[in-house]
Amino acid sequence: MKLDNFKESFRKISEEKRKAVLDSAVQEFSEYGFTSANINRIAENAGVSVGSIYKYFDNKEDMFLTIVHFAVDTLKTVLNEIIQSDETFEGRIEKIIKAIQSYSRTNVYLTKLYNEMTTESHSNLVWKIVSDMESTTAGMYISFIREAQEKGWVKKDLDPKLFAFFMDNLFVLLQFSYSCEYYKERLKIYVGEDVFDNDDLVAGQLMRFIKGAFLL
């Protein structure tokens, strides 16, 4: 499966127009899924003609794969910058939590798209790209935990692979809880209607939960 599923003409248009097409496609696929997404709506919301869309992509599948790749790369970049920093274990975890809160609000449709990819019936279209991201994230978290063990920051008897998996599940659920309606309502049931006005409370309590699991 090739990752650049667009035509050369898409690369040649202005960055502003390319962003408009990508943003419109992300919104459309995140709201309607692959099957119900409509090329006409994508073109209209992007301010381009339907004919132009087909000059950029051979079909809807290629457009979908392009935005999935775009979404995955965006998420990987955010995480990688934090994980590769010189912060302590606690410092990096706190930055990840706060980045998730901020990112999920400012990139609602990208986060919804990622949620959509986990349930999308056309999973054969996206699995290679998503699995690449999951493998990268898993590797980053496992290495991060092993580094923390070597430095004596966290318990030495925990399994880095399993704890990386548990930690990532917490982060993914937090991400969806700030952008996807089902998870947002679920969080409000547990915490209250004003939970989204209390980011520091959510971040602080999640930090305590993770520290309780990891720290000596």
Can you characterise this structure?
With 216 residues, this protein is mainly α. It has a domain at 68-214: Orthogonal Bundle (Tetracycline Repressor, domain 2). The protein contains eleven helices and no strands. The chain is globular.
Features:
single chain, 216 residues, mainly alpha, Tetracycline Repressor, domain 2
Work out the strand percent: under 5%
**Quaternary structure type:** single chain
| Mean model confidence by pLDDT | 86
Any guess at the CATH architecture of the domain at 68-214? Orthogonal Bundle
Major β-sheet annotation? none
Low-confidence stretches: none
Can you count the beta strands?
0
Radius of gyration using CA atoms only: 19 Å
CATH-derived topology of the domain at 68-214 = Tetracycline Repressor, domain 2
**General shape:** globular
Number of separate helices: 11
User: Which structural class do the helices and strands define?
Assistant: mainly alpha
Helical residue percent band: over 70%
Which H/E pattern describes the elements? HHHHHHHHHHH
**What is the distance, rounded to the nearest whole angstrom, between the alpha carbons of the first and last residues?**
45 Å
Query: Given this structure, which CATH class of the domain at 68-214 is correct?
Result: Mainly Alpha
What layout of secondary structure does this protein have?
Blueprint: H1 8-12, H2 15-36, H3 39-46, H4 50-56, H5 60-83, H6 89-106, H7 108-119, H8 123-150, H9 160-177, H10 181-191, H11 199-214
